[in-house]
């Protein structure tokens, strides 16, 4: 809110601002004033503001006026944010760890290690997919030495592409929220396909591609037009469907589609998993007990913080 107040204080009559729905929900009075300001800066005397307009609609109206003004050569002063998610961790470290400077170095080392390991694993995975599933498949190359060289080239290409795309992420409210939200296009479908493949031996093999495709279409529809339409008609408990809720809905959609496909066109012969007699598998009572504790703790956290 300090950043928002500073932006409002420096706002000039010829400038316009954008807002996110969370800001409109937290500061509806200020949002209405910004709507009037953007309308005046855009020269739109026909703009009508409804007092009962939902936050996401009011945000869309404010941003629409700002976009029109910018398209005509106007100046965008900035974006009013309801929550600055990217600043949460730095503020936490500054306020809680500041009295203990040595501890802050450990936190910095842990953060750097987490970032580097995550980046390395993603680059390695992307390079492996591009090399083995695309290059080796279509070129017919089988030499391990050449495939390793091609994989290294792909790593360099992906790093360059990531460096080009990274500055564009500043246009979003939160980089981490953007990454988490767009994982919803893939992760619910993968989970549903995995569960059916694990527990349903007669589910057709092609459901792997079909399930992921259904998830992409369903998540895109909920994000673009179907979700806002449902919220607008009061069929949801909030002004819009949050991305975690969209992921849950898509998961059950893909799961239901897989069950229907299994009933309609099951495999003639169920899949039989190979048995490895060379490895001795024994139950671990300690692991089972720890697993039950983790499940109970997870359910308890959901119940407490829901």
Automatic annotation (TrEMBL):
One of its GO terms (cellular component) is plasma membrane. Keywords: Membrane, Transmembrane, Transmembrane helix. It holds the Pfam family SSF. Coiled coil: none annotated. It is found in: Membrane. The chain crosses the membrane at residues 102-126, 147-169, 175-199, 206-226, 246-265, 286-305. It is a multi-pass membrane protein. It comes from the Bacteria. One of its GO terms (molecular function) is D-glucose:sodium symporter activity. Belongs to the sodium:solute symporter (SSF) (TC 2.A.21) family. PANTHER family: SODIUM_GLUCOSE COTRANSPORTER 4, SOLUTE CARRIER FAMILY 5. This is Sodium/glucose cotransporter.
């Amino acid at each position: 809110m300090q950043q928002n107040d500073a932006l409002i204080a420096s706002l000039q009559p010829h400038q316009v601002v954008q807002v996110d729905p969370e800001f409109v929900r937290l500061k509806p009075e200020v949002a209405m004033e910004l709507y009037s300001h953007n309308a005046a800066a855009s020269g739109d005397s026909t703009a009508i503001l409804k007092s009962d307009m939902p936050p996401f609609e009011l945000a869309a109206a404010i941003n629409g006026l700002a976009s029109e003004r910018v398209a005509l050569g106007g100046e965008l002063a900035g974006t009013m944010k309801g929550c600055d998610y990217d600043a949460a961790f730095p503020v936490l470290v500054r306020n809680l760890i500041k009295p203990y400077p040595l501890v802050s170095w450990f936190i910095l080392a842990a953060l750097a290690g987490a970032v580097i390991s995550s980046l390395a694993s993603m680059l390695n995975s992307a390079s492996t997919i591009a090399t083995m599933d695309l290059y080796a498949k279509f070129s017919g190359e089988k030499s391990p030495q050449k495939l390793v060289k091609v994989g290294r080239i792909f790593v360099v290409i992906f790093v360059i592409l990531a460096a080009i795309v990274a500055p564009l992420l500043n246009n979003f409210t939160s980089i981490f929220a953007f990454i988490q939200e767009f994982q919803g296009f893939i992760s619910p479908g993968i989970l549903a396909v995995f569960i059916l493949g694990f527990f349903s031996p007669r589910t057709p093999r092609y459901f792997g591609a079909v399930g992921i495709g259904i998830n992409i279409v369903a998540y895109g529809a909920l994000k673009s037009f179907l979700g806002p339409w449902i919220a607008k008609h009061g069929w949801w408990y909030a002004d819009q469907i949050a991305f975690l809720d969209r992921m849950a809905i898509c998961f059950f959609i893909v799961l239901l589609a897989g069950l229907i496909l299994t009933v309609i066109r099951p495999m003639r012969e169920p899949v039989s998993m190979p048995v490895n007699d060379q490895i001795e598998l024994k139950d671990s009572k300690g692991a089972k007990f720890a697993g039950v504790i983790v499940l109970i703790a997870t359910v308890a956290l959901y119940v407490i913080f829901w």
